[in-house]
Design brief:
single chain, 288 residues, D-Maltodextrin-Binding Protein, domain 2, five-stranded mixed β-sheet, 40% helix
Amino acid sequence: MKLFLTLLLSMTCILAPIKASYADTIYLARPKSEHDPRQEYVIQLLAKILNYGGEKTTTIKYTDHVHSRERLKQLLMEGRKVDIQATATRLDWEQDLLPIRIPIYKGLLGYRVLLIHKQHQSKFNGITNINQLKQLTGVLGTQWSITPVWKAHGFKTVTNVDYESLFKIIHFERADYFPRGVNEVTQEFKNFQPHYMNLAIEKQLGLYLPLPMYYFVTPKKPELAKRLNDNFEKIIADGSFDEFFLQQFLPIINQLGIPTRQTFFINNPNLTPETPLQRKELWYTNLK
């Protein structure tokens, strides 16, 4: 009996740390504006993935401070304060961090409609080719992944590092349009239009470039990256990712009339060879 209790105690000591690892806390960067709705879907999906099948109980929290994109990348590289961040892919992020190469929004971030001044719809009504749009001025975030692509294709572009200021720029007619992802624009309009009442969603045009948003994991936690990748593949295989995506975005896609808009397609020269363009199940493709 004494031997049995000794063995049982030894097994308990061995198993205890393993069991404890099944409850954890994951940190994401705090949004840059209290009106920024983009993290809601990111967190809901992340929780769905990490807690798949009841394997673990994961708590997801924001960091205490807001960080610039470059500072955020440095913190991830060092494994300090931030564990995972969701962002549109960039070459340096894919090289220096652990990317989970499954587009979180099924590429919907790359489908852009335009926020414009409500009095300026007539500027866009006659546009039938992309060169006409290039004569107008767009506004984008200084450090955003889309910004160098936009400039490389010859679009007139002004930039600002402050997220909320981008909406002010349209409101005060300092640029003609602000290209927003389909997954962003309706909630942003709802949040910002009461503060900047000249904002409107342009009615006829769309632009599309392959621009996947990935989860990026600190290289200090490869086991977290593996768990995230493996569980993401599981919710793709069982159909729950598609179900979750369509539940979130099909009403918005229909509301914006995405399949019927005049759509201009743009090449993205900054994608890596590992971009899973050949996996059609990972992309939303109902475009005109």
